[in-house]
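Example for tutorial group B:
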C-alpha cells in the first residue's frame, strides 16, 4: 500500500476542482482496503471514499484520508435460461460493465449507458436514467464496515433504495465501503422505451427487431448530444434531484404554468423536472464568473475553468433561492458535498 501525502484531487473529480488530500491511498483489493482503514495513522482520520469523482463537489482541502477504490473484475457467477448473475468489482468503470452486458444481450442496465463513475458508487444514489434504476437489478452487494473493518453483505431490500437515494447516502454515509455488486440481469430482455426521446430515436431507425445494444447506442448518442463532457467542461451531472409534490401542489403550479414538465408517480404524487423550474427562473445557460447553468440542460452546473467549489456552492444557493421564491419548492442536492 502506497500512502501519498498532500496530493491534488483536481484530476480525480469531474468538476475539475482543485482540492488537496492530506493522505491518499488507492486500493485494488479488499485486503488492501482493510489494511488502509485499520492502519494506525488513519484510525481516527476522516475518510472520503472515492470512485470516479463524478458526483462530488469539493469545497475545501480534505484533511483526512482519501481512499480511491480501484477493485477490478467482472465475472458471470451463475446463469440459467432466464437470468444471469454477474459480479463486478467496485472499481470497474460503470459504463464498461454496461458494455460487457449489452454485448452479451443481457438486459436490465442498457438505459444506464454512459453514466460516468464506478460500479461501487452505483448503489450509493441508486443510479437511474431513462426509466431504469440500479435497484431493479441489484441482487446483492458486498463491502466493508469502516468502524469494525468487517465484511458485510446487503440484500436489495436492506439497501433502502429510493429515487437517487439509499441507506449508503444516509445512515451509512461515510461508514460503509462497497467492494462489489451482484446484478441479476435478464436473458430475455424487456426493453424500456418509456422516455419520449428514446422512443423517437428508436423509431427513426426503423428496425425489424430492437436489441439492448440498439437502446444502449441510442441513449449514448442522446447523452453525447445533450450533456457536457466532463473532460471538456467540468460538471457532476444533475446538481439537484427532481422534487416530488402532491397533486394539490402540482395543480397549483399547473394553473400558473400550464407548460410545467411533470410526471405522475405510482403513489399519485408528481415528479417535477427541476431543470424546467431552473429554466423558468431564467438560469438556463446563464454564466456567473467561472460557473453557470448548462445551456442544454439547466440542471447541470458547470465549471468553465478555474472555478472553486465555493463558487459552485454559491451559484447553487442562488438557483435554490429563485426556485423557492417562484415555486415554493426547496430543491435538494443530488451531488455529494465535501
Ligand atoms: P464518486 O463521485 O466518486 O462518489 C460519489 C459518492 O459515493 C461519494 O459520496 C463517495 O464517497 C461515495 N462512494 C463512491 N464509491 C464508493 C464505494 N465503493 N463505497 C462506498 N461509497 C462510495 N447519475 C445518475 O444516477 N444518472 C445519470 O444519468 C447520471 N448522469 C451523469 C452524467 C454526467 C455527465 C455526470 C458527470 C454525472 C452523472 N451522474 C448520473 C452522476 C454520477 O455519474 C453517478 O452518481 C455515479 O454513480 C458516481 O460514481 P463515481 O464513481 O464517480 O462516484
Ligand atoms: P428528459 O428526458 O428531458 O426529462 C426531463 C425530466 O422528466 C427527467 O428528469 C425525467 O426524470 C423526467 N421524465 C422524462 N420522461 C419521463 C417518463 N416517461 N417517465 C417519468 N419521468 C420522465 O431528461 P434529461 O435531462 O435529458 O435526462 C435523461 C435521463 O438521464 C433522465 O432519466 C435523467 O435522470 C438522467 N440523467 C441523470 C443525470 C444525473 O446526474 N443524475 C444527468 C444526466 C441525465 P428522471 O430524472 O427521474 O428520469
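The residue assignment follows.
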Amino acid at each position: 500500500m502506497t500512502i501519498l501525502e498532500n496530493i491534488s484531487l483536481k484530476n480525480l473529480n469531474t468538476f475539475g476542482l482543485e482540492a488537496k488530500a492530506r493522505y491518499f491511498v488507492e486500493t485494488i483489493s479488499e485486503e488492501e482496503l482493510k489494511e488502509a482503514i485499520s492502519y494506525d495513522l488513519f484510525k481516527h482520520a476522516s475518510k472520503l471514499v472515492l470512485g470516479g469523482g463524478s458526483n462530488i463537489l469539493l469545497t475545501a482541502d480534505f484533511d483526512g484520508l482519501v481512499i480511491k477504490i480501484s477493485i477490478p473484475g467482472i465475472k458471470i457467477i451463475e446463469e440459467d435460461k432466464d437470468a444471469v448473475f454477474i459480479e463486478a468489482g467496485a472499481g470497474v468503470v460503470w459504463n464498461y460493465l454496461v458494455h460487457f452486458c449489452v454485448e452479451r444481450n443481457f438486459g436490465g442496465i442498457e438505459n444506464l449507458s454512459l453514466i460516468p463513475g464506478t460500479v461501487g458508487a452505483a448503489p450509493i444514489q441508486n443510479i437511474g436514467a431513462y426509466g431504469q434504476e440500479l435497484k431493479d437489478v441489484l441482487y446483492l452487494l458486498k463491502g466493508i464496515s469502516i468502524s469494525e473493518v468487517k465484511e458485510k453483505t446487503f440484500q436489495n431490500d436492506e439497501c433502502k433504495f429510493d429515487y437517487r437515494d439509499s441507506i449508503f447516502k444516509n445512515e451509512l454515509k461515510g461508514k460503509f465501503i462497497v467492494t462489489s455488486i451482484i446484478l441479476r440481469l435478464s436473458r430475455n430482455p424487456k426493453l424500456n422505451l418509456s422516455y419520449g426521446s428514446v422512443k423517437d430515436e428508436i423509431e427513426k431507425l426503423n428496425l425489424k427487431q430492437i436489441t439492448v445494444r440498439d437502446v444502449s447506442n441510442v441513449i449514448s448518442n442522446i447523452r453525447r448530444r445533450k450533456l457536457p463532457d466532463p473532460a471538456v467542461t467540468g460538471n457532476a451531472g444533475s446538481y439537484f434531484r427532481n422534487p416530488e409534490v402532491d397533486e394539490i401542489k402540482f395543480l397549483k403550479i399547473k394553473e400558473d404554468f400550464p407548460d410545467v414538465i411533470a410526471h405522475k408517480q405510482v403513489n399519485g404524487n408528481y415528479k417535477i423536472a427541476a431543470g424546467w423550474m431552473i429554466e423558468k427562473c431564467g438560469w438556463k445557460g446563464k454564466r456567473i464568473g467561472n460557473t453557470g447553468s448548462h445551456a442544454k440542460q439547466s440542471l447541470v452546473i458547470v465549471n468553465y475553468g478555474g472555478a472553486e467549489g465555493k463558487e459552485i456552492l454559491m451559484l447553487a444557493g442562488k438557483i435554490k433561492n429563485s426556485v423557492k421564491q417562484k415555486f415554493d419548492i426547496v430543491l435538494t442536492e443530488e451531488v455529494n458535498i465535501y
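The longest helix spans residues 309-327. Compare this with the pattern of hydrophobic and polar residues in the output above.
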